[in-house]
Amino acid sequence: MTGSQPKLALVIGGSRGIGRAIVLRLAREGFDVWLTCRSNMEAAEKVKAEVEKLGRACTIFMFDIADHQAVKAALEKPLETRVPDAVVYNAGIAKDNLFVFMTKNEWDSVLHTNLDGFYHVMHTVIFSMLREKRGRIVVISSTSGEIGQAGQVNYSASKAGLIGAAKALAREVARKNIWVNVVAPGLIDTEMTQDLPKDRILPMIPMHRFGTADEVASIVTFLCAEQHMYIHGQVIGVNGGLAI
Ligand SMILES: NC(=O)c1ccc[n+]([C@@H]2O[C@H](COP(=O)([O-])OP(=O)(O)OC[C@H]3O[C@@H](n4cnc5c(N)ncnc54)[C@H](OP(=O)(O)O)[C@@H]3O)[C@@H](O)[C@H]2O)c1
Prior knowledge:
This protein has helices spanning about 15-30, 40-55, 70-80, 105-130, 145, 155-175, 200, 215-225; strands at about 10, 30-35, 60, 85-90, 135-140, 180-185, 235-240. By secondary structure, the chain is of the alpha/beta class. α1 (about 15-30) runs parallel beside α2 (about 40-55) and α3 runs parallel beside α4. The N and C termini lie far apart (about 35 Å). The structure holds NADP nicotinamide-adenine-dinucleotide phosphate (NAP).
């Protein structure tokens, strides 16, 4: 709680998959939630209803993180009245192809969304957090951003870029009591990984299974909510041993 008001979390990409699990965990932890999605309002409304069932408030914002003006138009006004205690930058896309066949559009759309989106969102939010002199930021990267993945040169570049951006930001804002960390999931059971050839992939994972969205959400919630914390500027892998 901040004074008598509940804490507030802004979850970018909270309508489905990992983001949905993060929203619900944070709500159980006592956070009100600002949930964003790109277009799937139906899914977002369902998550909002689940949050409200948990007794917390939830507001939905719909925008494309690749569109700077849209991000600003959606968030600037609400930020004048309430500042999130935690921001989870979770939204992201993949457009996989071997690099030799990768189109400029596949490269551009993944970089514009995943990496430029970080600037669009965090640059819109950070000033209000600096003013409050408190906050937690968690950026969702990927094992692909840590060790690279064939067929994902664009995605790996964007996710490695997020690690660099988060680490640099962590150095800039620590003095203002803002904690920044990265969570790097391996293979997690969501719509994004639905079409992957599981039988070929499982032998590469020491734990021999995909992770669940909730297994990512638990560490994100810890990084957003734990009071006794000294973790800053770190990349926490949640990957069943895929990257050791
Ligand atoms: N699943 C995995 O195995 C895995 C592994 C490593 C990292 N990750 C990362 O974890 C994050 C979540 O993955 P996921 O599997 O949960 O994905 P998902 O099921 O595809 O959900 C993506 C979420 O991000 C939102 N989103 C996507 N593009 C957006 C855009 N341009 N603007 C605004 N919102 C956008 C979606 O909104 P709509 O519902 O409106 O489309 C949705 O809420 C991503 O950053 C992904 O790269 C996933």
